[in-house]
Amino acid sequence: MKQDMIVVFDLGSEENPRLAREIRALGVYSEIHPHDIKPEELKALPNVKGIILNGGPNRVVDGVEIDVAQYVYDFGVPVIAFDHKGGAQLPKEGEARTKMISDFVLGTCKAQTNWNVQNFIDDQIELIKKQVGDRKVLLALSGGVDSSVVAALLIKAIGKQLTCVHVNHGLLRKGEPEQVVDVFRNQMDANLVYVDAVDRFLDKLAGVADPEQKRKIIGGEFIRVFEEEARKLDGIEFLGQGTIYPDIIESGTKTVKAVKSHHNVGGLPEDLDFELVEPLKMLFKDEVRACGKALGLPDGMVYRQPFPGPGLGVRCLGAITRDRLEAVREADAILREEFANAGLEGKVWQYFTVVPDFKSVGVKDGVRTFDWPVILRAVNTIDAMTATVEDVPFALLQKITARITAEVRGVNRVLYDLTPKPSGTIEWE
Ligand code: XMP
């Protein structure tokens, strides 16, 4: 790692990620570390040019106000302390304190503005080569942003020493499995094992209506399929993972309780005994996307909207049937196409279709129909904890309705979900 670094010590601020991002936005690399870092860990951090002690409302832990040890102050680089007592927020970009940050980072610390995607990629390639040597790495490649970027980076670093496993469980969006094969096998010449597990998943899910049960089956079966494939391969010692910085931050720090546990490996059997390769674990999501773009991944993959692990399985409501699943997939493809045509791709946070397990009466070409409705949902959010509904132009809703009712088999109505979160969740199941 050749890049200069500013270390942010977590002294109970809720603004640590934002501060690190602001420093990176100046072009200087920054990492967040716990206040009780050991001297040897601090010494091992490369090119530290300055230290920020970032205090805040969670500074008192178990009745004691936490602080860094004296060796942090004596480390030999400039140290500055911020304290946002009572939950005060960092000012918005461009405000006086932001100026304080840039004065400190660029002026006092004289940190070089050499944090950029290309340097990051070069560093990671070197680090991956050093970690892996001539050994082999396995990666579960879903086609989502994080796993795709890890794959592209690992291919660049170690080529055919990487084996990617793509499990098609039948619950992906239209064109996604094909795109994974095309990008990684055809264009990037990767070792890609494509597993057609559609029947296996749909058979397991047959008749299961409870959403949590469906999730458990999809998650559990995914691990079993992946494990079976891993056991077929010889001499794999590493598992690549698309862990990103928010996964680590959200797993909790010394001062903030876990928002959710970091569960990327989620129950892989211990006897598989892999060492992890996690080259994106210090990147925020937008940096992951920039990295994917620089590595040559297509925009459709890099700027994908969030997609839940159980995929269309929780959008085909109740017990999944193949015909309704196809209806969700086709309707979703139309919605995405029309949003893209209208310039909404990348502007609306998440949009998708849902097909419930009831029918209603309609009429087509003078003939009575008894078919399913398709529900459209389009929402915006910052953290997915709350969400507002996108104000989709009425003419666009009409166009999508006309296309879905004309083109999707078994559908005779289209509804638009106007419910914010709360009271609705983003997904229907
Ligand atoms: P909800 O429905 O809880 O969704 O408001 C919030 C965000 O989480 C996604 N989501 C999931 N993601 N596995 C996932 O990986 C899941 O089981 C799951 N359920 C919901 C949802 O798409 C939205 O972005």
Give a short overview.
This protein is α/β, with parallel strands linked by helices.
Broad shape: globular
Determine Rg (CA atoms, Å): 24 Å
Distance between the amino and carboxyl termini: 44 Å
Quaternary class: single chain
Q: Provide the CATH superfamily of the largest domain.
A: HUPs
Tell me the total number of β-strands: 16
For the sheet with most strands, the description reads:
5 strands, parallel
Order of helices and strands: EHEHEEEHEHHEHEHEHHEHEHHHEEEEHE
Poorly predicted sequence stretches spanning 5 or more consecutive residues: 260-266
Mean pLDDT: 93
Structural category is: alpha/beta
CATH class of the largest domain: Alpha Beta
| Count of DSSP H/I helices | 14
Strand order of the largest sheet: 9-8-7-10-11
Instruction: State the domain count.
Output: 3
Question: Residue share in helices?
Answer: 25-40%
Q: Into which percentage range does the β-strand content fall?
A: 15-25%
Q: Ions, cofactors, ligands: which are bound?
A: xanthosine-5'-monophosphate
CATH topology of the largest domain: Rossmann fold
User: From the 3D coordinates, which CATH architecture of the largest domain would you assign?
Assistant: 3-Layer(aba) Sandwich
Topology:
Elements: E1 5-11, H1 16-25, E2 29-34, H2 39-44, E3 48-55, E4 60-61, E5 64-65, H3 70-73, E6 79-83, H4 96-108, H5 117-132, E7 136-140, H6 145-158, E8 162-168, H7 176-187, E9 191-196, H8 198-205, H9 211-232, E10 236-240, H10 245-250, E11 275-277, H11 285-294, H12 299-302, H13 322-341, E12 350-354, E13 360-364, E14 367-380, E15 388-389, H14 394-407, E16 411-416
Helix pairs in contact: 5-6, 5-11, 6-11, 13-14
The structure holds xanthosine-5'-monophosphate.
Xanthosine-5'-monophosphate is lined by residues 215, 306, 308-310, 350, 384, 421, 425-427.
